[in-house]
Amino acid sequence: MAMKSTLAALPLALALLAVAPFAAAQAPPAVEGRTVDGKPFQLASLKGKVVLLMFWSTGCAVCRDKMPELRQNYQGWAGKPFEMVLVSTDRRMKDLDDYEAIITRTVPLKQRFVQLWAGEGGYKDNLGTPAVQLPASFLIDKSGKVVEKYQGRIPAEAWDKIAELL
């Protein structure tokens, strides 16, 4: 009899296991660490703002090519509840430092956004390994919920969606 009840409970147990990863994926995104400027950062502190969170690398041509567009949109939404957060997945901090040195000399302060390095000792997130294809971006609404995910180039519709969420 014990064997029958164990077998009867097996489908329920398997169903619960199948749902567990989905439930974890629905948790609010969490990113924390230090910015490249050395300031403490927690994504949760941006609740009440629309956030575009992008994982990228200086070695990713698509990522670098998108930066001017990202900067223009960021500047265009100045004064609105919008923030861009970039997480560099570069293997070496030196690669990001070299890139940032160029940005510091060439990009106006009002067009710069929050930047973290995933290799920094205190960095952590609950989003898992970014996709095989960079950039990997998450659009987060004012309540802190991921509403869109983008692989590769950020589509034009993403900017419409951001405007809608603002």
From TrEMBL:
| Pfam families xrefs | AhpC-TSA (PF00578)
Q: Where is the Thioredoxin domain?
A: 21-166
Gene3D superfamilies, alphabetized = Glutaredoxin (3.40.30.10)
Keyword Signal appears in the UniProt entry: yes
| UniProt key word Signal | yes
Q: Which domain of life is it from?
A: Bacteria
SUPFAM superfamilies per record:
Thioredoxin-like (SSF52833)
Task: Give any GO molecular function from the UniProt entry.
Answer: oxidoreductase activity
Where does the record locate the signal sequence feature? 1-25
Keywords of this entry: Signal
CDD domains in the cross-refs:
TlpA_like_family
| Listed name of the protein | TlpA family protein disulfide reductase
